[in-house]
Amino acid sequence: MSVRRSPQVLVLNGGSSSGKTSLARALQEILPGIWLTFGVDSFIDALPGGGDSPRAGITFAPDGTITISAAHRALEATWYAGLHAMVRAGACRILDEVFLSGADGQDRVNAAFSDVEVMWVGVHCPPDVAASREADRPDRVVGMARTQAASVHRGVVYDVEVDTSLAAPDECAQRVERAVESRVPQG
């Protein structure tokens, strides 16, 4: 039986406009220590053209579907390796992710962070609510939220799950905080 330790990485997985970033910010305010937030948006912003260049290896179709190239996946592995190095150096990390490939995305992150304690947080939001939020955000391709709402969770195993349509970010963060505390060794 493996001994659970305090997590060094929290992975928030949910579709576009599901409330991950608001949850991450709320978690930064209540978790002990300083937690750094990075995620898929940070990675895309760092790509050529902020992800809009053909050289970025990611294509956003008008209907909200996203296509990823092999070159993009290889660069993503490098991104995770860099984030892992920061964790190994002592920084606690919140990853704000959208696993387009569901369980395959979880497998990639598990491989990248195999030697550190990771806690998995499912961030759910009904498609209609996410689509409404998406409509209020000028930086989103219409259709992504609805398309991703369920597919990003396919096959992913979570330690804790929240629904941001039922609770405010602070309430969701408190639920995650309780899950984190339950993993902190006592003594």
Write the element-wise H/E pattern from the N-terminal end onward: EHEHEEHEHEHHEH
Mean model confidence by pLDDT: 92
Oligomer: single chain
Number of strands: 7
What share of the residues lie within helices?
40-55%
Calculate the terminal CA-CA distance, rounded to whole Å.
19 Å
Tell me the strand percentage band.
15-25%
Shape, principal axes of CA atoms: globular
Number of helical segments with 4 or more residues: 7
What class would the helix/strand composition place it in? alpha/beta
Q: What does the radius of gyration come to? A: 16 Å
Give me the side-by-side strand order of the main sheet. Answer: 2-5-1-6-7
Detail the poorly predicted runs: none
What does the largest sheet look like? 5 strands, parallel
